Backbone:
């Protein structure tokens, strides 16, 4: 299953992902309704994209008193049954990553829908800080990096 | 109103009143926003000869229709007022995140009037606008102030534009700094802010900005992104940002070195953008929604400067605190930049002041005793750090430099006046005008005083004579040491720069990389606003802005006689003798003649003609100029 993976160490903090998300979902410009959020701590140069992690056992769904949220088993995303949502923000409170918010105009939960498999935030990212890929891809990258630490394929004429 | 926040906010600090009115669409069509709408407001509301530091001056923050959009680097806010440094048009802009946040709060312009009784800061959270006590912030630097406000408001998504101690102490070239390091620092806009007892503007916006045709807009941006990613300069801009110019300008012999005594710096390699990248760069940083992350976060590991971390720098402060002052020590240069940012000072003006003093000392015009016992030898680190402190606090010799180099030289006298590198009271940038003639002309005629960003006529670097013929009918326009056609080049790029500043986009993309021509700009603005502008109409908005600014400074008494450069550039051949620019001077008059003709201005006086102003719909400016000048071409 694919999800949006984050490499915060290369994030430039530009927030193009947020604007792209809002442009797609609201047809307007802004950041307040983005389903991806970059946390920026400027004095230390920290920029961290926060994304929906597509939890297998989602706290937001469990918290919903009206069963307005459910997990799409194909995409892995959390979907909202608009007619059942009462706008109580229980999902907002319970997401352990702070990545559910309510839309200021509609009070409906803003949850990443992966743009039906072609996330515009990822397309707009200039640095590769967010990528859309296999959910284990970052873990694999880390294993390979760790294994290769201090090594080079050039050594011993391997390449 | 599509593409706009929709509201103009007016804050009177004298009586504490906060008023709002709808953004005037008719004015937006004529001036767009940002720099354009700001100068229109200034022209209408601030009378001629207003003292920059008086409560009657107005400080105007503005954003344009492309700010906060998908446009890569649609990030910039513009600040405009009567300048307390130059006495003419004050205007400066910066990127980062403040501009978009202001727009998302619903505002296209914030007009600050009057003067508060004690230090305050303006807090804007969407429709909720309040003046908060800022007394505890007075005396703190830009970083401390920003951090204190973020903590106070409990929201790190708040964007803060603040002034440092330099402005508080009345340094005339103090700027306004957003996101810590995004400097709107030319022409003393921070000094105006301090004179109003306004320590900072904090803004948080959660509105969405309506757009006329989002599908069309998105489609254009996708095309733009492709152009940008495939641009020949993309990689080097991401790696080095504008600091790439240290190496590039040194190579052509055009880097400001030891106060323009020569055009090549022997330590250029040690202080270059490449050196920063190799030694201190942690990662790339970017302005709002930009796909060219040309800024860099640096951690400077040097025992002399513990904990030194900064974002940037751009070429201007870097060359200012290295080659211009004869300093080959990169970490020291970065420390200087960090100090200028925290104290909130214009790095160009500050480095000019220091290098001017060093040259005066070199020539025996200034003694060590007069400089508080400091050894003003080129590149002396201790002296340089001490001078920055002294200027920021207006202590001792720093008090002389704190008024800007023009006034400093007038006070010192002894022939130091002709060493003062300024135009109309604003300090010259870090490129040697002798090596780049269009820039020389651009500096001479720029509406805010000597400055390159009013035109940024990069085309003369292109060395593409066929393109020169295609654009201007003149092959020489493509070569930096040629004169012919440079009046046309500067006119063209001034109009582009005006559009950049009025829409709120970055000149790296819009001007230097030329990602959109006039027709494409019109297409994008139409998708944003729903208007039906042609490319020619967009160009004319740029022309209108340039003309109104010219009328503004003409009203202050500026004429052709003021459109000049320091004597050195006009008379002393540029060295070293082995450089590709060796022997160059600037023959300004032939370029000025061509420029005024291209502008439709009076060649003899450099004043805008009634015909030109009326053609652009600036009838009130024509009337005002005719009334204020007996022998102006307008009166006739």
Residues:
């Amino acid at each position: 299953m694919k999800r949006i993976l984050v490499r915060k160490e290369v994030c430039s903090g530009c927030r193009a992902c947020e604007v792209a998300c809002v442009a797609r979902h609201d047809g307007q410009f802004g950041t307040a309704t983005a389903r991806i959020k970059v946390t920026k701590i400027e004095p230390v140069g920290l920029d961290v994209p926060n994304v929906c992690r597509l939890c297998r056992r989602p706290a937001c769904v469990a918290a919903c008193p009206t069963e307005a949220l459910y997990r799409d088993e194909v995409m892995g995303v959390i979907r909202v049954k608009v007619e059942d949502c009462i706008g109580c923000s229980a999902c907002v409170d319970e997401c352990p990553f702070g990545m559910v918010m309510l839309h200021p105009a509609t009070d409906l939960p803003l949850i990443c829908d992966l743009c039906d498999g072609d996330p515009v935030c990822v397309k707009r990212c200039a640095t590769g800080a967010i990528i859309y890929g296999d959910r284990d891809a970052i873990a694999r990258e880390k294993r390979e990096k760790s294994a290769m630490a201090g090594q080079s394929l050039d050594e011993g004429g391997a390449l | 109103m599509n593409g706009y926040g929709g509201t103009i906010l007016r804050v009177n600090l004298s009586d504490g009143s906060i008023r709002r009115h709808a953004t005037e669409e008719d004015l937006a069509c004529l001036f767009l926003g940002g720099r354009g709408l700001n100068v229109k407001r200034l022209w209408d509301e601030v009378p001629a000869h207003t003292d920059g530091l008086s409560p009657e001056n107005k400080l105007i923050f503005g954003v344009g229709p492309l700010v906060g959009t998908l446009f890569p680097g649609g990030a910039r806010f513009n600040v405009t007022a009567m300048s307390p440094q130059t006495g003419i048009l004050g205007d400066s802009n910066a990127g980062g995140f403040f501009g978009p946040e202001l727009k998302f709060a619903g505002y296209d312009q914030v007009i600050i009037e009057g003067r508060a009784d004690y230090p305050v800061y303006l807090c804007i959270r969407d429709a909720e606008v309040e003046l908060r006590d800022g007394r505890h912030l007075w005396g703190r630097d830009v970083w401390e102030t920003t951090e204190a406000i973020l903590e106070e408001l409990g929201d790190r998504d708040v964007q803060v534009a603040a002034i440092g101690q330099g402005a508080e102490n009345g340094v005339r070239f103090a700027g306004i700094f957003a996101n810590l390091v995004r400097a709107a620092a030319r022409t003393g806009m921070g000094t105006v802010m301090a004179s109003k007892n306004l320590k900072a503007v904090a803004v948080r916006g959660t509105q969405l900005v309506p757009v006329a045709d989002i599908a069309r807009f998105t489609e254009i941006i996708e095309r733009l992104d492709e152009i940008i990613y495939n641009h020949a300069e993309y990689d080097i801009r991401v790696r080095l940002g504008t600091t790439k110019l240290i190496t590039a300008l040194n190579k052509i012999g055009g880097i400001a070195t030891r106060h323009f005594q020569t055009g090549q710096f022997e330590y250029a390699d040690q202080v270059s953008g490449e050196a920063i990248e190799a030694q201190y760069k942690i990662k790339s940083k970017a302005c709002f929604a930009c796909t060219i992350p040309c800024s860099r976060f640096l951690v400077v590991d040097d025992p002399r400067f513990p904990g030194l971390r900064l974002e940037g720098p751009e070429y201007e402060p870097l060359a200012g605190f290295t080659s211009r002052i004869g300093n080959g020590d990169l970490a020291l240069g970065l420390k200087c930049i960090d100090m200028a940012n925290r104290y909130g000072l214009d790095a160009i003006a500050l480095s000019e002041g220091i290098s001017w003093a060093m040259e005066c000392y070199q020539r025996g015009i200034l003694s060590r005793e007069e400089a508080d016992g400091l050894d003003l030898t080129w590149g002396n680190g201790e002296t340089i750090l001490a001078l920055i402190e002294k200027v920021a606090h207006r202590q001792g010799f720093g008090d002389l430099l704190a008024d800007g180099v023009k006034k400093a030289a007038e006070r010192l006298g002894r022939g130091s006046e002709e060493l003062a590198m300024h135009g109309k009271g604003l300090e010259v940038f870090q490129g040697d005008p002798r090596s780049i003639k269009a820039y020389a002309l651009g500096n001479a005629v720029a509406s805010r005083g000597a400055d390159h960003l009013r035109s940024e006529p990069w085309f003369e670097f292109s060395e593409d004579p066929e393109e020169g013929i295609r654009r201007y009918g003149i092959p020489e326009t493509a070569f930096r040491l040629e004169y012919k056609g440079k009046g046309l080049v500067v006119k063209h790029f001034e109009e582009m720069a005006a559009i950049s500043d009025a829409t709120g986009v970055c000149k790296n993309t819009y001007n230097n990389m030329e990602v959109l021509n006039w027709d494409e700009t019109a297409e994008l603005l139409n998708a944003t606003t729903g208007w039906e502008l042609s490319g020619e109409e967009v160009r004319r908005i740029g022309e209108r802005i340039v003309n109104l600014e010219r009328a503004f400074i003409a009203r202050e008494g500026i004429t052709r006689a003021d459109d000049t450069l320091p004597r050195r550039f006009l008379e002393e051949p540029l060295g070293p003798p082995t450089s590709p620019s060796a022997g160059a001077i600037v023959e300004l008059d032939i370029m000025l003649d061509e420029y005024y003709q291209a502008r439709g201005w009076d060649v003899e006086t450099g004043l805008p003609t009634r015909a030109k102003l009326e053609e652009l719909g600036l009838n009130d400016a024509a009337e005002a100029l005719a009334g204020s000048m007996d022998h102006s071409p307008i009166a006739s």
The radius of gyration of chain A is 18 Å. DSSP finds five helices and eight strands in chain A.
